[in-house]
Amino acid sequence: MQRCKKPIAWLVVTTLMLVTIALAQAPSEAVSDIPHAVLGKPLVLASDGIARYEIVIAPDATAIDRYAADVLASTLEQMTQAVFPVVEAGAQSGKHAIFLGLSDAAKQKLRTDPLSVLGSQEQVARSIGKDIYLYGQGIHGNLHAMLMFLEDELGWRWFSRFEEPVFPIDRNLALASFSRTRTFSFAYRMTEFQKIFDYHAGINMGFSERQDRVFRLTGNITYPDGVESLLYNPEFVHATGNYIPPTPTYKTVRDVYDWVTNRRYFYTNPEYFALNASGRRTPEGTYCFSNPGLRAELTAHVLEHLRLLKEQGIEDALITIDTHDGGGKLCYCPQCQVLEGTYQCPGGPLFDYLIELCAEVKTLYPKAQIKTGASRVEKTGMAPTLPEGVSWPDNLVVIFANISDRLDRDWGCADNSQNYGLLQDWLELTPKVWTWYYPNPYGLGQDMPFAGIRRQVADLRRMHELGVQGVFFEFTTPNVHQGEGFVELQKYIYTQLLQDINQDETALIKAFTDSVYGDAAPLVRGYLEELEDAQAASVYRMPLTITSIDFDTTLAYLTTERLMRWHGYFDQMEALVAADAHRLENVRRLRRNIELATLGRWHALTDAYPDYFTDYQVHIARTGDHADSQLVEDFETIILAGKPKPLPEPFASMPEGAVIRTMPTNYSRGTSPKIAPDLDAAFGYAATIDLPDLPFNFGYAPRVAGMDRVEMTLTTDDITPDTYTMYHLGIIEVMPAPSIIYFSNLSWMTHLLVGEKLYMPLSPDNDNRYDVYVSLKFSGEQYGGTGQTQVLCDQIILVRQMALDS
């Protein structure tokens, strides 16, 4: 905790009248077993920089309670310049007491045990006479009661890990009598890469296991004593391989436990691993959960892990057994297919095993639980239909992931209705359902302006209404680590709604922006609203991963008019906070995504606003230390390539909105160039084809059972070397991801994710039919041309059939 560098404008109330007015404006609720304190003389915490209170903890206080006491003492000292001693019960100093936790001394004064009437994780902050009592249920109860006291009585706020906490500073700090109680809206609250900020914001899971894992791998400690998880979850996700590692190198990507002796199960027991569609077993983290040997070995290792944890005093551990992160079925073997039918869902083999495992765990370790993931409808996303006589275990937690959501729509929209329905199905099966939620796009999507706050608020409230017990938001994209865009505002609202789902998000946005952006805050809020409106109005949808920048489809909401207007806002913002270096940096971090979009749309912007967009290097400089430097370099290549050539006929004469012009992306991991500058190319550069074949094959793969590919094969007779030639692939019906337009049967690593870009649910306004044309240039002796052997694709033209029909 560090000193607030600038006092906020208002001062804490120092008279009874003003404090009484302030409390009257804020809701407060009395604890059921103690009458509300009658307002009397103020509680003078400090006068003239001298503390009038001491912080009292129990002699056997936990590490969490001692941490909470230290935070309280440090914060009060920063607020008042007075030293508040932390003492154990029974110490005599002549001061009044702030009882942190219900020590014996506190209970003697209260003459009761108030914990007996509190619900799970409920906290109380109240005064009785001159004494203050801060306590709550659960291992974090006293910590959270202390934080409630700081926030609600003392005006302490912490908005972001990039900010210092803010609070009033007063050497003469006085309060009126008060009484508050609070419970959390979600019992299990999680986020990625937890910081101390998250702990103080009410996040209660993920700390212990990350501390433990970092220490095992590096010998370093990341958190101070007293930062602990509600439940110890040794591995959060994709953990089956920790117990059954397929190969010795598996430890390099996951944290295999030291006591697991066999590190090469794929070689010693290949039958433990899933059979793929080609009839082969692979060591890729997929397991054949119908195999009796796999079940016995995995169960033995889980039980051994629980035994070791119990020796350390951990009896309520949460052990993760789930699947790997990829798509596709769990296993194609006949036994697994039978279990799919038994449970009427693709996850049948895993669920059948988990039911068996949970029964053994409950017998030997009744306080422990197993956690599994429900992700991807073709794998484990669907809830099972239980066979007659089979019950779902009450020691099994399911964490449901919305991996196929469109990130610019909430669960109330048709695009995401399937996931919302799957979540509801799980909650009909078991109350122990948590959610794994993706608030921001991955890939190149993280580099573009994105809001997403309306969506996360709406879906969090749906989760609460359904009875979801725990929530994990995956704030882990690189822009999160750098605090770019609105990610810190997203996280602040997320943590606040986990505490109280009924908080007014508009007020939260105002409080955050006023503190973080100062005089620029009104313009920031205006930009946020316009960005939200723009995404909501777009006819295209944003997938979880955006693999190429496409301003014609996925990013169509980033029009030149909006980018120009938003640049005007940011110019004003920077002028308003120019004298405040920290807030100026905050504004500039928020601006980076606008600058990246500007580089991507440079030619269109210079055409529309030549007087403003004069030097692209100015905008590159504003991207600062952005994580994806390669993207900036690619944008510069595209800018230097010049403006795109006009659409050729007959496409140039087609109705507006009928033609989409784009290009594929080379996703190969080799060292060969992914794009090639080319003056003859439609955009001045082209995508290279990974491992081009001859005859040369390309086509459309819908990746949907029962639908055939649309293919074209070119021989040397079809190729005019060293020049771009347009090839007519034909009519395709775009299906959802992962449908692609691919190139070369030797690779397919160069492709266009057409399903992600263009698929929209069927409606009277859309039938997903496109006529596809592909422009290719073949070079090198293999294709009858000159120079090095390569194939370039400079454009794919898709003609929307409904636009022509209308």
What does this structure look like?
With 806 residues, the protein is an alpha/beta fold. The chain folds into four domains: 16-183, 2-Layer Sandwich (Chitobiase, domain 2); 231-390, no CATH class; 526-641, no CATH class; 651-805, no CATH class. Helix content is 34%, strand content 17%. The protein is built from 25 helices and 28 strands. α13 links the parallel β13 and β14. α14 (453-466) packs parallel to α16, α16 (487-499) crosses α17 and α19 (560-576) packs antiparallel against α20 (581-600). The radius of gyration is 30 Å and the shape is globular. It starts with 15 loop residues before the first helix and ends with a helix.
Overall body shape: globular
**Overall number of structural domains:** 4
Rg is 30 Å
Low-pLDDT stretches: 1-40
CATH topology value of the largest domain: Chitobiase, domain 2
CATH arch. level architecture of the largest domain = 2-Layer Sandwich
Give the % helix. Answer: 25-40%
- pLDDT averaged over residues: 89
- Report how far the terminal alpha carbons are from each other: 63 Å
Summing up helix and strand content along with how strands pair, one would put the structural category as alpha/beta
CATH class of the largest domain: Alpha Beta
The beta-strand count equals 28
